[in-house]
Structures are given as structure tokens and as C-alpha cells.
Design a protein that fits this description.
It is a single chain. The chain is mainly alpha-helical. The protein has one domain. The protein contains 6 helices and no strands. The longest helix is centred in the N-terminal third of the chain and has 33 residues. It is elongated. The two termini are 14 Å apart. The model has no long low-confidence stretch (mean pLDDT 86).
């Protein structure tokens, strides 16, 4: 345990840069999730033309958790954040699978919005945990 007068060592500058990049990607991913859910709602309740944007936007942000996973190693982040990033990516894969195989999955295709809820929670959790990375806590 640290004494009151001991200094907490700061990470090297390059590690801090990777960590800040991780924080930025975490926020970008969270924003994309919010936009995706909003587009799904617009497509369902307002105008069906929004479904195309909902569908194509997913292809752009699907790889963000992979980038976050890479940055988690470069930034020497805690293991639980690495697991969350992997989980986010696997949930996105599950989202694609529920759409691609919806005719074969039957009732299991209803997991698509449930997985979206977990993606929202996981991305918010990542943002929350990542804010301890910039300074002295890790």
C-alpha cells in the first residue's frame, strides 16, 4: 500500500497516448450504438427508409471493438477491459448472424434487440471504466 507521501508512477508517454486513443474509440463506439438504436427506431416507427442506413452503418463501426482490443494491449490496460472489448466484438458478430440467418433461426432472431441492449450496456461500461486510464488510476 502506498504511503501518503509516495508518488504514484505515471505510465510512459506513449502508453498514455494509446490510452487516450482507447478512450476516444470507446466514446465513438458508444455514440455509434446510440445512433444505431435511434435509426432502428426511426425505421420502425417513422419511415422504413431508415432501415438501409441502419443496415449500412453497422458495417462501419463493427471493427471499432477490435481496434479497442489492440489499443488495450498497447496501452497496457486492465484485463477486464480487454474482455469487454472482445465481448463487444462477439456481440456484433452475433448481431450480424441474427440478421443473416433470421429466416433459419426463427424465434432466436428476436435476440437482435436484446443483444443491442447488451451492446449499449457494454459500451457505456467501457466508457465509464476508460476514464480512469488517463491519469494515475489503473
Amino acid at each position: 500500500m502506498l504511503e501518503m507521501n509516495e508518488k504514484i508512477p505515471l505510465p510512459p508517454p506513449r502508453v498514455k497516448i494509446w490510452r487516450y486513443m482507447f478512450i476516444v474509440l470507446a466514446w465513438v463506439f458508444f455514440a455509434f450504438i446510440i445512433v444505431q438504436v435511434s435509426l432502428a427506431g426511426l425505421g420502425l416507427f417513422v419511415n422504413g427508409e431508415h432501415w438501409e442506413l441502419h443496415r449500412t452503418l453497422a458495417h462501419y463501426f463493427a471493427w471499432i471493438p477490435v481496434g479497442m482490443l489492440v489499443l488495450s494491449f498497447l496501452g497496457k490496460l486492465p484485463v477486464h477491459l480487454r474482455w469487454i472489448c472482445l465481448g463487444l466484438y462477439l456481440m456484433i458478430v452475433a448481431q450480424f448472424l441474427t440478421v443473416i440467418y433470421s429466416s433459419h433461426l426463427g424465434i432466436l432472431s428476436a435476440l437482435h434487440p436484446v443483444i443491442a441492449l447488451f451492446l449499449s450496456w457494454g459500451s457505456l461500461s467501457t466508457v465509464k471504466h476508460s476514464h480512469n486510464l488517463g491519469g494515475k488510476k489503473v
